[in-house]
Structure formats: structure tokens, C-alpha cells
Amino acid sequence: MIVEVRRYASLGASGTGQLPGDPQDVELEDGATIARLLEELALPPEAVHLVIVDGRIRHDREEALRHGARVALFPPVGGG
Amino acid sequence: MDPERTGVRMDRMLRVNMTDRSATFEPLPAAYRNRAGRWLTSSIVHDEVPASCHPLGPNNKVIFSPGFVTGTAAPTSSRISVGGKSPLTGGIKEANAGTGWGRRLARLGIRALVVEGQSTDNRFWLLKVDTKGATFEPADPWVGKKLSEAVAAIAAKSGGKERVDVCAIGVAGEHRMGAAGVCFTDREGRASRYAGRGGLGAVLGSKGLKAIVVDDSGAADVPIADKATFDSGRKKLAAALGEHAITKPKGALNSYGTAVLVNILNEAGGLPTRNFREGRFEGAAKIAGEAIFAGNKERLGHDLYNHPCSPGCIIACSNTWHHKDRSEHTSCIEYESDWAFGADCGISDLDQIAELNLLCNEYGLDTIEIGGTLGVAAEGGLWKFGDGKRAIELVHEIDKATPLGRILGNGALITGRAFGVTRVPHVKGQSMPAYEPRAVKGIGMTYAVSTMGADHTSGYTIAPEILGVSGKLDPLDPKKTDLARTFQYATAFIDSTGHCLFIAFAILDIASGFEGVVEECSGVLGTKWTMDDVGRIGKAVLDLELDFNRRAGFTAADDRLPEFMSREPLPPHNGVWDVPDAEIDKVFAS
Ligand code: SF4
Question: Residue A16: its pLDDT value, please?
Fold first, then answer.
């Protein structure tokens, strides 16, 4: 299956020529979890503070993703 | 021992009467001895301003108060609170800004500067405050001028920006417009830091006070009653700020500024777009903090991290945006301003957003209110969403004070009325900030009940609802009654300390940091406050404000979000505002 990933702020894919937030298709085995996606992207789990899947904030990293999901990854961010 | 009776700080109040242009120093009344910042501005408004007065009449007052620790070595503590009765909401108002101005006032031993009366000669005046006292001179040369020019000239003739900071109103305030903010100089002397919300600039304009310059040269340090406790506290806070990923050097705020939130709210479906019609903006990535960082890097040829807006800030979240020729265009494009002119106006060009931001700084306008107003104006057919050139022309109308400009300059509600628009995102007449209530329920409750009108800084529930700071809550869960209350109490306390609210990201997660803040305050005042006093003080502040608003005529019916939010589903979640009125009424019921 393929998920559409957006890496924001300091998680932006450096060296790939992509800007933070440019969508990136990632191929994973069916039923792969959020944790598995981070592994595929070689992102240390603790570097990713927030995962938003199809507009919903997801705290359980063992949750399975679905084909076509929009996945947004953020480091700790704040503002106002 | 009664914690209210141990204070040793011998501060003064400066009372300025614009009717006869007198300035009198008074001892700080005993009842106010341990109050500062928002607690003190709201106390004085509550105790001295008739709740039924016309906000632009002679009986309203504008009160300035630095926080408990402003002027000391406490990190990120150069905030100044400004209070009065708001011409926008008709209720009490406290707005605060980061600036050396408050620090200088604190060093002069002035805990509160109260501006009252009203000039009767149709002229504008400049007030100068220094160790010798307070004097007036005519402000004629700066009336009608851009704020950057006025403020630079005032600073230059008063000893230079190293020596003074300036507070001033722009053209919008001179014309008594409801969206007029109070402008303060930043650490570099830019006219860029605003106590923006609620129209307090118009109140100063109504009094004939154009600017206040504060010179603290020769002033003694702020006295500290218990240095050991103070030092212990400030070290704990500095450690928490230096450690937390959001507030540390080259952390999220220092790198990307507050506009780093654009993408996160967009992904969460809570970024109000085109006047709160949608929760996602297709141009979000182009205007976000990351794009500001990348755009500056491309234009300047190097990474540009953000700067402190005010002396002693170690978070340093304030950004600049640069023209293609590398010269500075504007500072600061905050998340709120970026969203207001960007997503809310359907504009995805950072240069146009920067120009709109600059114009608001030059004319003395609240960016949130003006962005919200432009969104409503687009609904009303005055321009098309996304047409940045036309949006810029409309803001120039405000400077010219044309009839159209005066309507726009009085904010979203007035503009909606003038153009027959029903989709007006506001509470109590103040336009909504950059978080969509239908997608983030706790902030919606906060907007509803806040004593300030729609205001995200009253209680930043976004931290646990979206950012995963101090908890992990579901933003769509409507059960946020207790959250809305406790966050508003904690915030009212922080707003009284003189610290920037952005310390909250660190101290909500790192308990020793919050203890440090309480110790700093006790250290300055000589009190024995504990964490229990945070809620007590916060509640005391809110109780004063709620009582003022009640006397000003507000009822539960005013604690409601606009009707369209209960009727129109918001994409992408397609939910409506569904928090029951009875729950909203419980927030401050106890
Ligand atoms: S954190 Fe940002 S807004 Fe707050 S005082 Fe520092 S620079 Fe100013």
C-alpha cells in the first residue's frame, strides 16, 4: 500500500530537495503501523512528537495505516 | 502569615490626567501591593472605571502595568499589560506586549501608569516619563505619520533607542477605530510589538495621547525582597526554557517562529480558511513558518534564526521577512497575522502577507482583527478572496480614514453589519483568532467565555488539544469545561507575572519550571506563594473581570459562538459547533 507523507519543520526531508511539507509517497506492506512508517523513513520515534492521520491526531503508534492515508509528522512545535 | 501582607516592594502609581495634562505620582495603594500586570490593570479597571461608561469617553481609563518580575533578571519577562474598557467588546480588556518599555517603567518603580480624562483641545500629546518625573509636549509633528517614522523620531529626540522605548498609537488610534492597537518598540527600536486586541489604541486616541516615551537611565534596579528565592526560581525557569524542545535555542519557536503552527492546524483541519468556511487551506505550506525560514534563507543566502522581541527573552521567537533585495520587509509575521492575511483571506503569497502585516504596524492596527475583517469584507463583495493587491488597497483606505476605511477599521462585526454579512466569526465583537472552534472544541469554549471576547491567549488549550503539550486530548471531544477554566486561571496568573505566555510550553511540561516562576514572584515580592496560589490568583483576576463585564451588561447570551458555526459543517471533518450552552455556562459557574 501507499501512504502520502508530509514531514514538517525540522523533520523536513533534508538532502532530498524537498521543502518541509511537500508530499511524499511511501510504499509499505498492507496493514503497516505508524511505528513501521517511521522505521521506513529512518526517523527515530522520539524525534516525531505528533502524528496526524487524515486530520486526526494519533497517539497510538501501533495503529495500522490504510492505503492512501494522509500522514503528517511533526517534531515538538508551539506558537500562538 | 497572610501571603498578601508580606510585600516589601515600595512601588508607585503614576496618574496622568489628559483633561488638565497633570501627572501625579502616588504610592501604590496597600490593596494593590502584591498585584501587577493583568491582575493590576484589571483591578484598577474594575475599581475605578464605571462599567457603563462609553469606552471612548472621559470616564474610561487606560492602565499600563509591568508584571511582578518585569525589569529583573527573570528570563522572558519583559511584558507590559495594557487594560481598559474595550471599544470593540464593551467589556474589560487586557492586552500585553513584549517590549523594553515595560521593563523601563518597572525600573522607574512605576507599577501602574493610569491615563484618565480626555484632552479638550483636539490635539495629540506626547508624555515623557523618566527619573525626574513626567512631562507633556505637543505631538503634532507625528500625527498622521507612519508609526515607524513617528517612533524613530520620538526615540531619536529623546536620547536614542538604547536609552528609551516608545509606546504609541497610529492613525487608526487617532481616528478612534475599534481595531486600533497599542504599539511598542521592540529591542531594535522597531514599531512592531503590539498590545493589539480590543481597540485600546482608540481609547488612547480618544484621550489625545499619541505616545509615551520612557527613559530609565539613572534608575535603580527593581528591588528584590528575597534574592535567594528569586535566583532559585529564575534558574529553574531558565533551565526549563533551555531544555524544552519548543522553547530551547534553535528549537521550534526560535527556528520557525509561531507560524510553525500553520501546517499543524492545517493538517488537523482546524486552520480557518476564507472567513471560516473551511478548515484547510491549499496554500498553507507556502505561508507556514517553514516557508518563511526557507524564503529568508533563499533571499539572504544563510539560515536566519529568530530574535528576541524584548530584552531578556531567551526563547527568541520574533521573525523578520526580507525582500528579494535582502532588505527587511517586516517584523514580526506571527502565526496569527500570517493566518489572518493568509488562510483567512485565501492569500498564499508571503510578500503580500508581509505587506499587510507591515501596513498594520504602520497604521497601528490589530492584525487579527484586520485579517478577520478582510475575510468578512470578501463575503460582503468588497474584494475576492486571494486578491492580495486589493486587500492591500483596502488597508490603505483605513489610513486615509475614508468612510470605507473607517468601517473596516472598526473591525469584523461592524463590517459585517455594514455589508449584510451573517458569517461573522467573532465573540463579544472581537474577531476570532486562528483556531477553528468546530475542529478544536476547547478553544471554542475559551472563545465563548473569555472576558476578552474571542481570544486564544485567554487560555491556550491548543497546547493539550493539538500540540501534545501538558497532555494529549482529542480536539474534537466536546468535554472541555474544566480545561477551559483551569487554563484561563493559569493564564491570568502568567499574565500577571510579566512573563511571555510562551513560557507555558515549557512550564506546563516541566513542573520545576512552573515552581520557578512562583518562586521568582515570591522572591521579588517577599511573599510565600506556592503552586496553590497560581489558581487562587488566576481566579481572583477572572472574578474581577467577570464582575466588570456583568456590570457592563454582559449575560450568558454573550458567551456564545456565532450561529453559523452551529449550522454549517466545516470541512474536512464536517462537524458543527455542538458544545451545549449549559456546558459553556458551567465554565465559570463555580
Ligand atoms: S517568546 Fe517571542 S513573543 Fe515572547 S517575549 Fe520572547 S520573542 Fe517576544
Answer: 59
Domain CATH for B44: 3.60.9.10
| Close Cβ partners of B5 (under 8 Å, ≥ 6 residues apart) | none
Domains in chain B, number: 3
- Indicate whether B392 and B480 sit together in one domain: no
Q: Is B297 helix (H, G, I), strand (E, B) or coil?
A: helix
Count of residues in chain B: 590
pLDDT of the residue at B329:
98
Ligand 1 pocket (Cβ < 6 Å) reads: B 76, 98, 308-310, 313, 315-318, 500, 502
Q: What is the DSSP letter of B140?
A: G
Q: Does A9 touch chain B (CB under 8 A)?
A: yes
Q: What is the pTM of this model?
A: 0.97
CB of B248 closer than 8 Å to CB of B75: no
Which residues of chain B have a CB within 8 Å of the CB of A19?
Answer: 285, 290-291, 294
Considering the domain delimited by A2-74, tell me its CATH architecture.
Roll (3.10)
| In chain A, where the domains are located | 2-74
Segment B100-107 mean pLDDT? 97
Alpha-carbon distances of B363 from B96, B159, B355, rounded to whole Å: 19, 24, 12
Domain that residue B96 falls in: 12-215
Q: Are residues B272 and B198 in the same domain?
A: no
DSSP for A5-68? EEE-GGGS-TTTTPPTT--EEEE--TT-BHHHHHHHTT--GGG--EEEETTEEE--TTPBP-TT
Confidence of residue B11 (pLDDT cuts 50, 70, 90): confident
Specify whether B481 is located in the same domain as B539.
yes
| CATH number for B396 | 1.10.569.10
Is the residue at B367 inside a domain?
yes
Q: In the predicted model, is pLDDT for residue B4 greater than 60?
A: no
Size of interface A-B (CB pairs under 8 A): 113
- Tell whether A45 is within 8 A of chain B (Cβ): no
Phi, psi at residue B183, to the nearest 5°? -95, 140
- pLDDT category at B10 given cuts 50, 70, 90 is low
ipTM: 0.96
Backbone angles phi, psi at B536, to 5 degrees: -65, -45
Contact A33, A53 (CB under 8 A): no
Per-residue pLDDT for B1 more than 80? no
User: Is residue B231 situated within a structural domain?
Assistant: no
pLDDT exceeds cutoff 70 at A17: no
